[in-house]
Design goal:
The protein is an alpha/beta fold. Helix content is 34%, strand content 19%. β4, α4 and β5 form a beta-alpha-beta unit. The mean pLDDT is 95.
Length: 209
């Protein structure tokens, strides 16, 4: 099952997977998708099998390990028909799964880049348990949009990581894991940050081959 937004004849399609605990039609995913579609991207959202099963039986089984979802992501890629360029990515865990297959897909010419919305650099409260080994040597052009106070990796923490030079990070002031800021402290709204996120993706996409 897919949800599509944006023009069908767009030059670039962005394939997005959801995070570990929220479905593809969550408020955050819907807001992000709307912002990206407004910049002319065709956005395709899909769900991993465990999340789709929740809609049927109502159970909340924990997600499989990210490595076990790589095959599902590749199948989703094969089902999405893109007339132009394809960027893969997702929200949190969805972006992490995409990052695990990105270099192989990029080398094969099937994608032009990787986009992660709130990358889970480490589990909350466990900054020592980094999930960065593969992105330290990544060859795929990548953009990570991250809130400065994200509990999965803040700006202060991420600035110490030896990430690949192929990765750009866009920081969103006072944003949490959904890029949502505290307006009273930052002066920004969630809508402000989502618009800026889409602008950043558009500018980055223009630089891709």
């Amino acid at each position: 099952m897919f949800l599509f937004d944006g023009p069908e004849n767009a030059d670039t399609t962005i394939l997005l997977a959801h995070g570990a605990g929220a479905a593809m039609d969550s408020a955050s995913m819907t807001l992000a998708t709307s912002a990206l579609a407004s910049r002319g991207f065709r956005v395709a959202r899909f769900e991993f099998g465990y999340m789709a099963a929740r809609r049927v039986d109502g159970t909340r089984k924990p997600p499989p390990k990210a490595e076990l979802l790589m095959g599902e992501y590749r199948r989703a890629m094969g089902e999405v028909k893109s007339a132009g360029r394809l960027i893969i990515g997702g929200k949190s865990m969805g972006g992490r799964v995409a990052s695990l297959i990105a270099d192989e897909e990029f080398a094969a010419g099937r994608i032009v880049g990787l986009f992660c919305l709130g990358y889970p650099f480490h589990p909350p409260g466990k900054p020592e348990s980094l999930r960065t080994a593969h992105i330290e040597r990544m060859q795929t052009p990548a953009l990570i949009c991250q809130g400065t106070r994200d509990i999965f990796g803040s700006r202060e923490e991420a600035q110490t990581y030896p990430l690949s030079t192929s990765i750009d990070i866009g920081w969103f002031e006072d944003g949490d894991h959904d890029l949502k800021p505290r307006k009273a402290l930052s002066g920004f709204t969630h809508a402000n940050h989502m618009k800026s996120m889409a602008d950043a993706v558009a500018a980055w996409s223009d630089r891709l081959g």
